[in-house]
Amino acid sequence: MNYDQYNAFCRALPATTYVVQWNNSHVWKVGGKVFAIGGLGPDDKPAFIFKTSDQNYHYLSDQPGYKPAPYFASRGMKWIQHFVSSAATDEELMYYLTESHRIVSLGLTKKLQKDLNLNQV
């Protein structure tokens, strides 16, 4: 996945906003909270950071092309960096970005979730 594909995918998720910050990283937010970061990984290739569930964090930490996200993981946060792109892992990445969006949106206040039309049953 390249940055254009990543940005197009994140843009299509509900109630997202985009900003370039933290050393020219492509940062996506929902309700003002970060759910995905696109920046440079090993060998200056695109790498993507996202929030995960505890279970996915432990699973992905040991998978090829994934590692605990620099800065976040060292502070006890469950964020993973995906740094090897292929057709198969790009499909996985889309799943994990969607899950990150969901996890972060569930942490927003109920009022904000309602205002953004998120997680409504």
Characterize the structure shown.
The protein has 121 residues and is of the alpha+beta class. It has 4 helices and 6 strands, in the order αββββαββαα. The radius of gyration is 14 Å and the shape is globular. 27% of the residues are buried.
N-to-C series of helices and strands: HEEEEHEEHH
> How many strands in all?
6
Q: Report the radius of gyration as a whole number of Å.
A: 14 Å
Give the overall form: globular
Helix content: 25-40%
Strand content: 25-35%
Uncertain segments are none
Distance between the termini: 32 Å
Largest sheet, described in full? Answer: 6 strands, antiparallel
Structural class: alpha+beta
Count up the helices: 4
Protein name: MmcQ/YjbR family DNA-binding protein
Organism: Photobacterium sanguinicancri
InterPro entries: YjbR (IPR007351), YjbR-like_sf (IPR038056), YjbR/MT2646/Rv2570-like (IPR058532)
Pfam families: YjbR (PF04237)
Topology (elements, then pairings):
Layout: H1 3-12, E1 16-21, E2 25-30, E3 33-40, E4 46-51, H2 54-60, E5 66-68, E6 79-82, H3 87-106, H4 110-115
Antiparallel strand pairs: 1-2, 2-3, 3-4, 4-6, 5-6
Pfam families: YjbR (PF04237)
Organism: Photobacterium sanguinicancri
Protein name: MmcQ/YjbR family DNA-binding protein
Short structural description:
With 121 residues, this protein is an alpha+beta fold. It has four helices and six strands, in the order H-E-E-E-E-H-E-E-H-H.
Please supply descriptive tags for the structure shown above:
single chain; 121 residues; alpha+beta; six-stranded antiparallel β-sheet
